[in-house]
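Hey all, quick one. A colleague (J.T.) asked me to put the beta-D-glucopyranose job into the tracker so the inputs and the structure tokens live in one place instead of scattered across chat threads. No bug as far as I know, just bookkeeping. Sequence used:
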Amino acid sequence: MDNQQFLGLIGKMTLEEKIAQLVQLAAPFYEGVSDEGQITGPMEAMGITDSMVTNSGSILGYAGAAGAIAVQEAHLKKNPHGIPLLFMADIVHGFRTIFPVPLAIGCSWDLELAEKSSEIAAREAAVSGIHVTFAPMVDLVRDPRWGRVMESTGEDPYLNSLFARAFVRGTQGDNLKEEVERVAACVKHFAAYGAAEAGRDYNTVDLSERQMREYYLPAYKAALDEGCEMVMTSFNTVDGIPASANEKLMRGLLREEWGFDGVLISDWGAVKELIPHGVAEDEREAAYRAIRAGVDIEMMTACYVHELPELVRSGRVDEALVDEAVLRILQLKDKLGLFENPHRGANPEREAEVIFSREHRDAAYELAVKSTVLLKNEGVLPLRPEAKAALIGPFASSGDILGPWSWDGRKEDAVKLDRALAERLGEGRLTVAEGCGVESGTEEQLQEALAAAGGADVIVLALGEDSDMSGEAGSRSDIRLPQVQLDLIARIAELGKPVAAVLFNGRPLDLHGVYDRVDAVVEAWFPGSEGGAAIADILIGAADPSARLTMSFPHSVGQVPVYYNHYNTGRPQGAPDAQVRYVSQYLDAPNEPLLPFGFGLSYTTFEYGAPALSSDEMTAESPITITVDVTNTGARAGIETVQLYVRDVAGEVVRPVRELKGYAKLELAPGERGTAVFTLSEEQLRYHHSDLSFKSDPGRFEIFVGPNSRDTSNASFKLI
Ligand code: BGC
């Protein structure tokens, strides 16, 4: 259909029919009114009438091809204009085949695999009848107390932007009409949801516009540059106004400045939440503010359907605002081909073929291997082939390794570590004991674990947070492992045997009581459906750990937020003229995190040569090239992620001490030398000035190259 036809259709719709397109209801609403015509359950509670459902535009959370086809068919029979429903759901890191959580995917620094994971997630979703996924989540994160850091790829705007693009590409492909096994992407949560004060979910966000533009906005913009069809508002305030009512942010920045003309959906209940936020007295004001801000779809509250008719009739809201929102929704339905093919990819046969297929699981395995970060290794890993091992801890035999937002992921399908490790080590070489639960344990469990450990040469502890301890509404103020697990580590460490800890969790942890007590630490995150297989292969050395942290691990929670791309302050620690006391520092903790951004070990070692610059002067027309030789000095093949950082020594406004500008992955055989080559141009040195203009400043820049953001060699050049 073209726009003329859409406008014709909109012209034929009543005001109520149009407004109903703007409501999104969850699946139970489509189960219909009772035989006696009674409205009960969620419809009654929300004041939703049968005709609102009949005319509604989209549904949240349906999955299963047969069911989706039936719901769509029934809907089309009833809807007076034959407008199909959009089916939307949160397919965040897999549909049934679950990939590692996005924070883990970030640590892979592997854009191809990230794209593939979204493509597979989209395929499984599309054949089950879904048209839109509420992903990618690209909120920049600095505070591990916030449970939703597991949904983000981390603390760096450049890397987050690359991942945002990869996820959108994988999800949407090139043509949603033709590729019915892709789905539309919805980037979220716009904007700056990741900056919730004190890491408490839904809490206030208050950032300067410069800070927003420098750090928080680039990844959303990148997703849109890649053609992302939808945007979701965030729950938080942006400069004092909740995102869902924020005209400056939505109409100003998103629509006018960035030119976004796709569908903007509120987060769940966020329109009605304008009332407790304190910017609307009642549902009418909430609807007024949200439609004025440009929110097209109200998710799961009914302010629009209840209040917009009267707001339009009284002349307070221009009907054109409603028409505009309906038009965007119809256009999206058309892009997805729903007018010609309302069932789109929904297909029970394909569902049986592709969902959780071997091919999909292999991709999940590969990404789980590539997302696992080796944080410490003092000679324990890989496990020696002849060693007898004990696997101990609440995650030894647990299927709770998929992580939050695992749509149709099933814990019972997950490859568990005990089984995978036993298969690989062979008969009689592994004993398994739980030791304790995630948050509590018994003396009996402990004794059993000590007995298992007593008979082993090496102990692998499988520890962590269960999946309810992170994710939405999963904030914690203490980000250590639960005490019972710390006690277990202490008791096992007393045996004096080599110990490796594998951690399953959704956030950077305070590793007191872990890092200092064991010989090796493997950060498995929530590795997904094939997690056990991937971790077991890493433990025995059949696979090499190659991931690098994309979020700093704090020394302790008191340092939070702690991130690599911070400013220097006027009294930095370690300056040649620094005083003993009056510098920016803690009296009781270092300034640096325990493990910095970019950090991760391999089973081999790499040696870096000095970075060489093609010139020590750069101009707008002549970029410079930076090369660095890296040699694999160990006995095994391995992958090194060579990282390039830049510092603008003196800007018009203060600049971060380091900013990632590029990285290169080198796969090197033992003894092999490779060269990482980076091109750096003036464009990459631009930043937002005090008047928000985006440009570079001439002057001196430092360059840092190394295996992480801390252990680098430097050089410098001048921009003229
Ligand atoms: C979350 C969103 C999600 C939505 C729909 C909300 O609570 O914040 O990320 O997309 O629910 O499930």
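Adding what we noticed when we looked at it: The first helix runs from residue 3 to 12. Residues 52 and 205 are 35 Å apart (CA to CA).
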